[in-house]
Every structure is written in C-alpha cells, then in structure tokens.
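Protein chain data
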Amino acid sequence: MEQHELSSKLALGFAGIGHTYSHLFAPIFFTLVPLALEQHLGLSHGETVSLIVVGNLLFGFAAPIAGWLADRWSSTGMMALYYLGTGAGMVMVGLSDTPFAMAFWLGVTGLFASIYHPVGIAWLVRVSINTGTALGINGVFGAMGAALGAVLTGIMIDTLGWRAAYVVPGSIVLLTFVAFVFCLARGWVVESKEDRKPPPPPVSRADTMRVIGILAFTMLCGGLIANATNPALPKAFSLDFSEGSGGVMTVSFFVGAVYAVAGFMQVIGGKLADTLPVRRVYFYGFLLQVPILLAAGWVGGTALVGISILMVSANFGVLPAENILVARYTPSDRRALVFGLKFVLALGISSLGVLLEGAIFDFTGNFTALFATLAGLALAGGIAINHLPRERAAAPQPEPAE
C-alpha cells in the first residue's frame, strides 16, 4: 500500500509539472512575437505568429498516436519520451536563426508536447479519487505554464536575450526527464492499469454517440477561442503598454497575471463538477464567455486586463467538466486514445485560431471583430451543450480504506 501511495503521489506530481511544461512553448512564442521576433525576423504580426501553426497542429493531431501508444505500450514510457523530446525541441527553438528553422523546431516541440494531454490526463484520471478536483488542480499547473512562459520571457529578454526564453526552460524540462527516469528505475513510479475511483454506471450507446458528437463541436469552439486568445492578448497589451523602458516587462507581467489568476478558476470548476451535474457546469461556463468576449473587443488599457482575466477564467473553468465527460463516456482501456482524439480538436484543428487572429488583426488593425467572432463560437457551444443527456448531481465518493 505504501508503494502504491508513493507511486500515485509521484504520478500526480509529475503529471502536474508535465502540464506546466506542455503549456510553455506556445505562450513563450506569442509573448516573444511583439516584443522581439517581429523585429528580429523582419515579418508582420500575422506572418510571425504563423510560424507556430505547424507546431500547434502537431500538438493536437499527434495526440491520438501518443494515446494509442500509451494504451498499447506504457504511459510512463511515453511520459519519459515527452520530457526528453519537449525539452530538446525548446532548446533548439532558442538556437534558431531563420524563420524556417524556428518553424521546424517549433514543430518538433509540438510533436513531443502532444504526448502530454492524452497520456498525462488519462494517467491522472486513473490515479485520482476526486477526479474533478484533481483535474482542476492539474489545470492550475497548465495555466502556470502560460503565466510563467509570459513572465519569464520578459525577464529573459531584459537580462539574457530572447533566445534564453527557450533555452533555459528547455534545459529544465530535460533535467525533469532525468529525475523521472530515475524514479522509474528505482520503482518509485510504476505503471497502473486500474482506476482508483469506481467507474460510473454504464450508459446507452445512443447517449454515448450523442455526447461524442456534441463534445466534438464544443471542444472545437472552446479550442478556437483559446488559440485565438493566446496571441491576441500579448499583442493587445503591447499596443497599450509597450511604450517606455519598462514596456517589455509590463506586457509580459500582464499576460502572466491573466493566466495565473485564470488558472485557479479550474480548481473552482473542478470542485463544482464534483458536486453539481457536470452538464450544468459545462453549459453555464460557455454562456458566461459570450458577454465577456464581446466586452473585450471594446475596451483597452487596464480595463482590458481585467476583462481578459474574466475571459480566460471562463474558458479555463469548463475544462475539468469537459474532461470528466470525456472520461465518463470512454472505456478505461481506450481512454488515452480518446483523449488524444479530443486534443486533435481542442489543440490541433483549433490551432487555426492563431491564423484567424493574425488575419483579422492584419486586416482590421484591432481586435473588435475577432472577439465578436469568438463570442459567437461560445454561444454556439452553449447551445450545443444544452442537448447533452441530463444527469443527476454526482454523489460524493467514499475514500478508499487504507
């Protein structure tokens, strides 16, 4: 029992820090774009952000392959490969000199980073009891990746240069690979194929197919909102706050603050999903985004910072409920594969939101039309969620006997 508990705790820890790392490479890039890369590469905003599109596509589209390998081979083995490849890819991005080289190594980083979400989240669901809360806490670690990526990028630009924004965190990810392999070799982290939490009652095939179709649509809507917001916030803040000697740090701090504060909303969302009908939490989370996104298109300055916190908080807050729904309608021995398919939509196809953001900004010179479009996507997602099967509030699960 002690060995099992140690392995579970280490799994939760490595899953959490792994989630942080998986959300580093894109926020670092999007913060670098207006602060360093547009000038360094001599490209427009839309042209510069397009360099990460292949990496973002692979971040999503390679996820099912990673999930399938984890189901067939080993979750822990795939996590080790994740730390190694992601760390090495980030270091090479920092050493790139041309747009092609940067796009290539961002693609490599996205390929290896794609391992985390299908494998790490399925691993977390397997070893957790209060799944919603565990997913919410894990979500905070992911949001910290976005926040740290933005803040550390500003620090690195001011102290060591923009290349260090990738080389330093990439090196830390590689050190985590060494620590993880050491824990595997010592038997402190072991493979687990059984869920700690009792499975929910079986559902009908018709309900399962209906949920899959609806979730595919809502995950696409939510992913497009998130992927378009990622480059929009640094650019919008740079337009208002980049003037003066402290402009770089001001922009990176505000971006980091948005993701740091919003990240904790996932804990609240997770706790709500453990105590209320998951469908209801998911539904109201989408509807809440509509007026906030509309407001974001019309404000600026410090008001935009406040609206952005609400906007990203609402987008993040629905993720624990979404992941619970995916797990609930998925056989445990196919869970990593199905989570991988989820992230084809949520991270892969949705990464086209980056092109949408760049194209709309280059055409209009502002973000009013972009946020109005994203508000429409949130409304469409909410309408779709209203057609999910109704459910009763989840009964609290007893803690397992020691």
Remarks:
- Residues 205-241 form the longest helix (37 residues).
- The chain has 19 helices and no strands.
- Confidence is low (pLDDT under 50) at residues 392-402.
- Residues 7 and 335 are 20 Å apart (CA to CA).
